[in-house]
Every structure is written in structure tokens, then in C-alpha cells.
Design brief:
By secondary structure, this protein is α+β, with helices and mostly antiparallel strands. It is built from 3 helices and 10 strands.
Length: 175
């Protein structure tokens, strides 16, 4: 008769360890896709991601349209007369009072950045149009000035401002 010392591993010990390892790997393999499906879709992440816009190619008196979160964003390089016209408006007479200084970043008065969606029914206004030289919504006739403030028409509020910051004098980050 042979006796075994309890310190020596047996085949049974090997099977227990192998079974535990395979079970652990299987559980981890099942959890990875379960946890991964809880993350937002890549297109959702990209849609809300901040965008950077190079301002250098935008000439004076030019407005460009970019898209952020599926919204049109107008970036307008205003001229000195357009800035002065926006600053010399009687703010108290506006339907949605806001000074020009509250609509632009300090030290960057020449750059107007607005969400290009009419505050009446969500149409996209045209830049450099209307009686005030700003934005004109052809759908219902709302007119905005060179600071994106409502001046005439059914729109109840000024064009909204997106969250943005100047990274440098020639580059902004929207979002």
C-alpha cells in the first residue's frame, strides 16, 4: 500500500485549477461585451465632440458656416463699421436686449459666433441679409443685426451663442 503526502499535487488538484481558470476566462469573456455595450456609440461621441476652426482663411466681412452637434454655426469676421453699428444700438429698444459686448469674446470684437437657427421656428437664416445687414430668415421674415440680435419679425430671442473659446488669435474651439 502506498501513502501519499498531502503536500504533493494530484491530478484532481490539476483538474480543479484548470476548471477554475477556464471558468474565470469564460466569465471575463462574457463581461467584456456586456460592459462595452453600455458605452455610447462612436457616432454619438463624434457628434458631441468639440470642433476646432481655423479663422486665418476667413477674410473680413466673410461669414462661414460649420456644423457642430448637427447645428449650423455661423462664424463672421465683422468689419469695423459693422462692429460700430452693433455697438451703437440702443439696447433698451431691442426685443431681446443684449449689448454687443455680451455677444462676442473680449478682445475679439471682430468675430461673431452664433448658432444659425432662427429662434422663431428653427429655420436657418441667411447671413449678410435683411435691413440690418446681419441675418435674415426668409421663412417668416425675422431680421437680426450684425450682432445676431433680433430686430424685427416674429422671432422672440436673439440667435443663440454656442460655447466657444479662443485657443489662439486664429483658432477657436466650439463645444
Amino acid at each position: 500500500m502506498t501513502t501519499m503526502s498531502p503536500a504533493e499535487p494530484t491530478r484532481r488538484d490539476f483538474l480543479y485549477i484548470a476548471t477554475a481558470v477556464v471558468g474565470g476566462v469564460g466569465a471575463a469573456a462574457a463581461l467584456v461585451p456586456l460592459i462595452g455595450q453600455m458605452n455610447p456609440d462612436a457616432s454619438t461621441i463624434a457628434a458631441g465632440a468639440p470642433i476646432e476652426v481655423d479663422l486665418a482663411p476667413i477674410t473680413e466681412n466673410q461669414a462661414i458656416k460649420v456644423f457642430w452637434r448637427s447645428k449650423p454655426i455661423y462664424i463672421w469676421h465683422r468689419t469695423k463699421p459693422e462692429i460700430e453699428a452693433a455697438q451703437n444700438v440702443d439696447v433698451a429698444a431691442l426685443p431681446d436686449p443684449a449689448p454687443d459686448s455680451a455677444r462676442v469674446k473680449e478682445g475679439h470684437d471682430q468675430w461673431l459666433v452664433v448658432i444659425g437657427i432662427c429662434t422663431h421656428l428653427g429655420c436657418i437664416p441667411l447671413a449678410h441679409e435683411g435691413d440690418y445687414g446681419g441675418f435674415f430668415c426668409p421663412c417668416h421674415g425675422s431680421q437680426y443685426d450684425t450682432a445676431g440680435r433680433i430686430r424685427r419679425g416674429p422671432a422672440p430671442a436673439n440667435l443663440a451663442l454656442p460655447p466657444y473659446a479662443f485657443i489662439s488669435d486664429t483658432k477657436i474651439r466650439i463645444g
